[in-house]
Amino acid sequence: MNKPFYRQLYFQILVAIAAGFLLGYCLPDTGAAMKPLGDAFIKLIKMVITPIIFCTVVVGIAGMKDLKEVGKTGGLALLNFEVVTTASLILGMVMMNLLQLGAGMHIDPGKIDTHSVAAYAVKGKSESIIGFLLNIVPDSVVDAFAKGDILQVLLFSMLFGFALNRCAEKGTVVLDFIEKTEQVLFAIVNLIMKIAPIGAFGAIAYTVGKYGLVAMLPLGKLMAAFYLTCLAFVVVVLGVMARLHGFCLTKLLRYIHEELLIVLGTSSSDAVLPSVMAKMEKLGIRKSVVALVLPTGFSFNMIGTSIYLAMASVFIAQATDTPLSVFQQLTLLGVLMLTSKGARGVTGSGFIVLAATLSAIDLVPAAGLALVFGIDRFMSLGRALTNLVGNAVAAIVIAKWSGDLDAQQMLRCFDASETSRQGA
User: What is the domain-level CATH number for residue 239?
Assistant: First the structure.
């Protein structure tokens, strides 16, 4: 029996978002004070992300009969991520060259107040490519889990899963324990998700109360162009990918609508990683594929972040009267292809990567970061939503490529989701 609409999570989140928006708009100081509610929810989710990834990856790999399939899936995933994110970067740069939104602002980089972005610029300079790659290897296993670094935990989990697979029957007891632990962790996630409306309320109230609507009006055109570009990429590129691989993007969006609403409220795609992993497995994708593709995708397949990085970089160049030749834009594109892979699905990570990119090359004034800092929080919402959709599509596509997708189960899940929504 379906729950009444007012008890559905998506309805409660929508109400919470509306309430948070009104509070932040009418009582800005009170709205800004709601920040701990949003932070607490995201911290609760992040608390269980790394152990869930560990359990899911280990169970998936240890249960595989042919370990060569892991390498095949990983290779297909990286190929997909690189092609799609490169396409998003190119689209972002093309859009800004066509629209010329920063042209005519004539801002002198030397007169920009960079106090508000000083910390980001310093942190950005420390984010080198080699440093990022070395950081994938943790100093210790405990340190990886303590910091909640997804890529470090993923590396250890894969090694643990491979080793457990080779132990065969000797590792049965350990594998059984990890499987049961995984079930408990997902039960914890289900409990945490019940307070998702509170987290969404706090995050939206803080954003509107802290930054206000007036603050984003001067750069409204950039924001509008960014959201339209993200929408175009999702509808056209991801929509075509979905159609070519035998599923409808609209049905997938309806299937993960609760996760999309949570991201809408929290501006963090990390907040829904555990629940998306569970839904993708239920959709008929093999556990090992879900375990490998999604956690990796949440660091390497950041489509929305890639669009933002490209558009923001060119916008700053235009606004500061820093002309970029075709060769210079190709150079910028090449650097972005690397730095964009270090962006995580948490609020503010995109801005840090932007700072790292501008600090790494002497093409665009890093002082121009201050121009987009005021609207970054609003743009992080578009980044997170696009990232989530991109990774959900990637999981199905890669599973299809590797022969690890039960297409009939996927269609049944989509139909059941449609029926449930209509019944609500």
Answer: 1.10.3860.10
